[in-house]
Amino acid sequence: MRCCCVRTNCEEVRSSSHGDQVVSAVKERKCDSSLRRKIASVAFTLIGALLLGIGMVLSFALLGSSAGLIGVGVLSALGAVCLSLGLYKLFLRMKRVSLDKAEQKMLEDQVELLRQENQELKAISVFHLNILERYAQQVSDMHAAQEKSLLANENLVKEQEAVVSRLENLLSRGKRAVDCSTFC
Prior knowledge:
Blueprint: H1 2-61, H2 66-183
């Protein structure tokens, strides 16, 4: 019984350490993807600012040609779009960081609660195991007492049978003696 429980506890320890490894791997992936997103949003912002700046410089340089102005306008518009998307992602990222921290805090709290619950369940299982071991000991003690009682009863029956057989022998001798005395 104890071997099975020890094996189960070892498996729980292995699974909980595996769970910790999974959590750390997920955290590492989140950090990597978070860093990539930050770099991408900063790069988007810089590219947008450069395109917008180049477009504005070229628009001042090419004031006379209409084809140049259209190209510069498209370049400026593209730069403005990239700049706005980059800034939006940066600000969204800042907002998301606070949300991620709140989620991380909530997950850490949940992990801590689960660890406490796991410890309580382990304590309860140890308590139940102790109760079952005491019950098994009581049952084996009762079984041993019953066996002793049965052996004692068998010995008493054998002794009674021996006494009865002796009494029968004595009675049969006594009858013979009485029969002999009446006939003699």
